[in-house]
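Pilot study result, target chain (91 residues):
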Amino acid sequence: MESKLILLDLYTIRAPSNGIVLEISGNTGEKVDKDKLLVKMSDLSTYKIECSVDNKSLEKLKIGGTVYAILDNDRLKGRIGNISPVINNKK
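Predicted structure:
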C-alpha cells in the first residue's frame, strides 16, 4: 500500500501557484512530455488595467501610488505598477 501512495504522489500534478483552471489540455491516462502544457490557469483575484493619462494628471502619479477604477458601478482600489511613456497621435 505504501508503494502505491508513493507512486500516486509521483504522478500527482501540482500547480506552482494558486489560481483558477481555465483549460485542460490533457486526458486521464495520457502519457505526456515534461514540457507539454496540461492546464491553463489564471489568478483572477487581481486585474491589470491600462489607461491613458493627460500630462497634467501625469505629474500626480507615481509607481506604487493608489488609484481607483469604476467598473459596473463598483469602485476598485488599486496601485500603480508601471508608468510607460507613449505618444498617442490619435486625436
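One observation from the pilot: The longest helix spans residues 2-10. A full batch analysis is planned for the follow-on phase.
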